[in-house]
Specification:
1046 residues; mainly alpha; 52 helices; globular
């Protein structure tokens, strides 16, 4: 392979004028043997221009990711897809580690990605030599090879980072060699503060973190080894960062290697404590290690971290990530008496001089508020933003400390109270005090002494600040109102009852003003959320806002449009539900505004890269759907909303399939809402568009389409049948789902839809469709099914066809043949049905275990509809005028099966008639003064975890034999299933009565064919005859009731 030719092509890819020709040249060459090794030679050659080397590295990375793994031909193809030749792969394996060592950083990054892919596919099977190669370079006297070798080792460890413990053996075998090497190397380098040394230390820490963060290999890291590493980690945390780092801009300091070393050390320490070193909160395998960790390391490490936190208190620079991790470690220490006793003397200082300042409004907050208020809003609502990390960790630490250690809450509440009472207090301190109170709201409301004072706290300190000249205090006051009210909802506290309603009225008025009139967008956002919370939890607040709901909703729309904040779409949805009558007058304008915002979001240039945009767009669609649902009784409004919704639907469907998928569920929900009452011509046109979309491999979303397709069938059956294309489209979709491998859930839905069509159109002249429908489901049934649900649904389509027209079905079956089975399928179908009748029963207990053991994989069905259609079908079967011969062989099974189905119906009807007590009815206000505090000499134990551990070791015994027939019917079987929601005429109140249908059929047989009647009833036991008589009685009662009701 000519390297010069490849280099020229690579150089051409950098030039826009030559790019297309250069890429064509490369695409014609990459399959040639020795192409990939030549790329690696170009990459490592220092004589080649850097841009060409970089382009070669990117091209090699893409080749390795696509063509390294051995691939087989696709189904139906005979030509093997291209893979990099094994000789080429071996050359790359031989030289890539050296390439990583020799190349500059940006090229090295591409090569390490190549190496990760190679290790994933070749280690240990084809490439055990990588261990020797890395080890040789790590032991080299040339220190220049150490860093690249560590990068290669990191790729090896990362490949196994999240593997299960029993899948990590190849890695652990390699780490038997490497762990002592890197531990010795980092120990030797600790005293060397040069950048080269610290970079190597950082890489070693990253390797150790990847090794232990998901699974701790105790066979590799015993107590002695762990002690060595903990000393290294403690030393890194305890050492000073060079003074010259303070000359670097503060925004850039976190990227310095010295701080990154501390960050990775802390990540390891905190992970070890949280996951493996916390007795009472670890899995059994780590129990002994947890005790050892807590007694041996936890206090010593915490002492160092308390020193770091104190440095921050004294205004020495600590990076946000390091501070956050320190607080996370201390948070874990709150649960254990050993670490708490050490922390306790410093606790008041930590809370008031470290935690509290972090929760106050800061200079960087003010800068962002003034320069980019929209980014400020985004940052405040994104808890994972780097700027928010220390404040979030501080809030979490404070809440846990106040909840678990009794001294903390009174001290902090008194501290905040003093600040709020002081008229000369710094406004930013007041912000911090309110932040603390809002964060502690849940705990405060559990304590009677604070709960009784909450109205005064709000009245004296929160409400006045709603009118503060400082925007951040107005925003914070709104946030506190929201936080306190949210606790009442989430934890079932009784809503705060204001003694003076004027106070509440004034507060609501101020929040409304902050929303409508405030000039600061962050205030508007917090005011919107607070107002919705007040309206939802204070009945008087809801009344106060009612006259102003239109300007409030218009302003909410304006704020959503400006900020694209997803939380506000939830606010709008809740307000719509609270004021559905008032919103009716502006529903169309609101929906148009939401549609315009959605269009803008979807068409924005940054949409593809910004996940927040997708979340926002989903929220907008959900809000439109809420308006549509609330307005469903307003026919004129719904008609106007339809046009707007169709614009939104069209916009989504016009995008590429990959972009549409994110909104598919919401779009289909909108279409469903538009077709629940009537279906307009425009909505019928949508059916054709959906079919085109479905054809483009969108059958994955067939279950999402199901409610809409059900509406097309049941809401306007006349229009469905007026145009053959409509029925053809729906059948084609069902047929495709049943034919391809779409998954049994989708297949169940497809079969259900065919059944719905048959039952909905009974007597409406769709005879030509019956053979197609039956053939589709029986073909699927013949291929074998895993779930009883799919088997039942396929059978039900044929049973529905029997009910539709018995002669037509039998004729269809007699003329239907499948490959490898030349006989007509009639006998096979009836035998299959009789054998599978138990799938309609929903039985449990001993029968359940019998079926599981001998049938395998069976789960009880619970649907009323299934049993009803099975009873009706069996009734039709026994009344057939020209009986297939196969029926004589199963005659003795028909009536007993029907009796058992009726018994299931009896249990099901009884269960559904009983008014089950509402779970929430038992959930009154939370017990006052609930206490989670831990005595200072005790550790917190995760009771839930212990309970699960105990349960996992408990063998459930069998019930007594006295449980009688109730053992056969599981309460869970009475809940219904999603498919039952797709109703048919059989399920309506005026639908076919199964008791009357069966008894009428049996009486008909008795009167017309005594011999057949004897074959059906002769084998019945005395108990079964008694059950049959009960069914006759129930049928007569129902007939009498129906006659009286006419």
């Amino acid at each position: 392979m000519d390297p010069n030719r490849i280099m020229q092509a690579l150089k051409g890819t950098i030039d826009p004028n030559l790019r297309i020709a250069a890429e064509n040249e490369l695409n014609q060459s990459y399959k040639i043997i020795n192409f990939a090794p030549t790329l690696l030679q170009i990459i490592v050659s220092e004589q080649v221009e850097f841009p060409v080397r970089h382009a070669a590295a990117i091209y090699l990375k893409n080749m390795v990711s696509q063509y390294w793994q051995d691939r087989e031909p696709s189904l139906g193809e005979v030509i093997f897809p291209f893979n990099i030749h094994e000789n080429d792969r071996q050359q790359i394996r031989d030289h890539i580690v050296e390439g990583i060592i020799r190349c500059p950083e940006s090229i090295r990054a591409q090569l390490t990605m190549c190496l990760r892919a190679i290790i994933k596919h070749d280690f240990p099977g084809r490439w055990t030599a990588i261990v020797d190669k890395i080890d040789m370079n790590l032991q080299s006297l040339n220190s220049g090879s150490w860093y690249g070798s560590l990068l290669a080792l990191y790729q090896l460890v990362k490949t196994y980072e999240y593997r299960k413990a029993d899948e990590r053996e190849p890695l652990l075998a390699a780490m038997q060699i490497f762990l002592p090497r890197i531990q010795l190397l980092i120990s030797q380098l600790l005293s060397d503060a040069t950048i080269f040394s610290v970079l190597i230390q950082k890489q070693i820490l990253k390797i150790f973190h990847a090794l232990v963060q998901y699974s701790l290999p105790l066979q590799l890291i015993n107590n002695t080894v762990m002690t060595q590493w903990m000393e290294i980690l403690r030393a890194i945390m305890d050492r000073d960062v060079p003074a010259e780092t303070l000359e670097v801009d503060e925004d850039d300091r976190p990227e310095l290697a010295w701080w990154k070393c501390k960050k990775w050390s802390l990540r390891i320490i905190t992970r070890l404590f949280e996951r493996y070193g916390s007795p009472g909160n670890v899995t059994k395998e780590y129990g002994e290690f947890a005790d050892f960790f807590l007694k041996t390391y936890a206090v010593g490490i915490q002492q160092v971290l308390l020193k770091v936190v104190d440095q921050h208190r004294q205004k020495q620079y600590i990076t946000p990530r390091v501070l956050q991790q320190c607080l996370n470690y201390l948070n874990q220490g709150l649960s254990h008496s050993l670490t708490w006793k050490q922390m306790k003397p410093h606790m008041q200082t930590i809370c008031q001089e470290v935690i509290f300042p972090l929760m106050c409004y800061k200079d960087e907050d003010e800068k962002l508020w003034q320069e980019d208020p929209y980014e400020y809003i985004r940052m405040k609502f994104n808890l994972y933003d780097d700027h928010a990390l220390p404040a979030t960790a501080a809030q979490s630490f404070l809440c846990k400390a106040a909840r678990k250690r009794k001294e903390v809450l009174p001290q902090m509440m008194e501290f905040c109270h003093q600040i709020l009472m002081d008229p000369s207090a710094n406004p930013r301190s007041k912000d911090g005090a309110l932040h603390c109170i809002g964060a502690l709201a849940e705990l405060i409301l559990r304590k009677r002494m604070y709960r009784e004072k909450m109205e005064l706290i709000l009245q004296n300190y929160v409400f006045p600040l709603l009118n503060s000249p400082m925007g951040y205090l107005r925003a914070r006051s709104c946030w506190v109102l929201h936080s306190v009210n949210s606790c009442w909802v989430l934890h079932s506290f009784s809503p705060l009852s204001f003694q003076d309603e004027l106070v509440l009225r004034n507060a609501v008025e101020l929040v409304k003003q902050d929303l409508i009139d405030d000039k600061e967008m962050p205030v508007k956002v917090e005011a919107a959320i607070a107002l919705q919370t007040l309206v939802s939890n204070q009945e008087q607040a809801k009344l106060y806002i009612r006259p102003y709901i239109q300007p409030v909703m218009q302003e909410l729309l304006h704020v959503v449009k400006e900020t694209e904040n997803d939380d506000l779409t939830n606010v709008i949805q809740k307000m719509i539900c609270e004021y559905n009558q008032e919103v009716a007058a502006i529903a169309v304008d609101m929906t148009q505004n939401l549609a315009d915002i959605f269009t803008r979001v979807l068409q924005s240039e940054e949409y593809e890269e910004n996940e927040d945009k997708t979340v926002m767009a989903l929220g907008l669609l959900s809000t439109i759907d809420t308006i549509l649902t609330v307005m469903e009784d307003h026919k004129e409004i719904t008609q106007q909303l339809e046009g707007i919704c169709l614009q939104v639907i069209g916009l989504v469907l016009q995008k590429p399939i990959i972009g549409m998928a994110e909104f598919y569920e919401e779009i289909l929900s909108l279409a469903f809402g538009l077709t629940c009452q009537t279906i307009s011509p425009q909505m019928w046109q949508l059916l054709g568009i959906l079919y085109e979309v479905f054809q483009h491999d969108c059958f994955d979303y067939f279950t999402d389409m199901m409610p809409l397709l059900h509406n097309y069938i049941t809401v306007d059956t006349d229009m469905l049948l007026s145009n053959p294309k409509h029925l053809e489209v729906i059948y084609s979709m069902c047929k495709k789902v049943l034919t391809i491998d779409a998954g049994e859930d989708a297949e169940c839905h497809a079969a259900k839809l065919l059944e719905v069509i048959i039952l909905q159109c009974r007597g409406r002249g769709i005879d030509q469709c019956i053979p197609l429908f039956v053939e589709a489901v029986l073909e699927r049934l013949m291929r074998g099914v895993k779930s009883s649900e799919l088997r039942t649904m396929c059978l039900q389509v044929a049973i529905a066809a029997l009910y539709y027209n018995p002669v037509l079905l039998i004729h269809t079956l007699d003329n239907m043949h499948f490959p490898h089975n030349p006989q007509p399928i009639t006998a096979h179908f009836i035998n299959q049905w009789m054998n599978d009748t138990e799938f309609f029963l929903g039985v449990h207990g001993s029968l359940y275990f019998f079926f599981v053991r001998f049938i395998g994989g069976w789960q009880p069905t619970s649907r009323l509809h299934d049993r009803k259609i099975c009873i009706i079908g069996l009734s039709v079967l026994m009344e057939l005028p020209s009986r297939p011969a196969v029926l004589d062989g199963v005659a003795a099974q028909i009536i007993p099966s029907i009796l058992l189905l009726f018994l299931g119906l009896k249990h099901l009807h009884t269960s559904r008639l009983i008014n089950k007590p509402d779970v929430l009815a038992h959930t009154g206000p939370q017990d006052e003064d609930q206490n989670e505090e831990i005595p200072s000499d005790e550790d917190e134990v995760n009771e839930n975890w212990n309970a699960m551990q105990q349960q996992s070791g408990t063998v459930t015994g069998h019930g007594s034999e006295d449980d009688d027939e109730d053992e056969y019917w599981d309460e869970d079987c009475f809940e219904g299933t999603p498919l039952e929601e797709y109703s048919t005429p059989l399920d309506y109140d005026n639908g076919e009565d199964e008791y009357q249908f069966f008894t009428s059929a049996l009486l008909g047989v008795q009167n017309s064919d005594a011999a057949w009647y004897q074959s059906l009833t002769g084998p019945l036991s005395d108990d079964q005859k008694k059950q049959l008589q009960e069914i006759y009685s129930i049928s007569q009662q129902r007939r009498s009731t129906a006659t009286k009701g006419q």
